[in-house]
Design brief:
two-stranded antiparallel ribbon
Length: 91
């Protein structure tokens, strides 16, 4: 048997995302929060890099948010081009 009591639950909402490189801010709009992180506009991307054994950064994990423009600038600075897969939508 389970008994429940009324209580207060504190929920945190994501209200703002900033590009770590340029500082661009993305707000949700009127509500000033993102209901879930899945609906953050695709102009800012979360990047997570974990460094393993043997790396100079062994055991560290970097998390950052980068906007499309900063990702393009980063990729353009590469000596060897990245592989790009493209989605093709048929209507």
């Amino acid at each position: 048997m389970r008994e429940y009591k009324d209580g207060t639950k504190i929920v945190q909402y994501l209200s703002l995302v900033k590009c770590n490189k340029c500082g661009k801010e993305i707000h949700n709009g009127e509500d000033e929060f993102f209901v879930t992180e899945d609906i953050i506009p695709d102009i800012v991307h979360e990047i997570k890099i974990s460094f393993g054994y043997g790396s100079n950064l062994d055991g560290q994990t970097f998390r950052m948010d980068l906007c499309d423009e900063c990702i393009e600038k980063l990729v353009d600075s590469f000596i060897i081009p990245v592989d790009i897969d493209r989605w093709i939508f048929n209507d």
